[in-house]
Amino acid sequence: MSRWTPCKRGDFIHKLRHLGFDGPFTGTRHQFMVWEQKRLAIPSNAEYSVPQLRMMIREIESVMRKQITSDEWNNL
Question: How far is it, in rounded angstroms, from Cα 20 to Cα 53?
Answer without folding.
Answer: 18
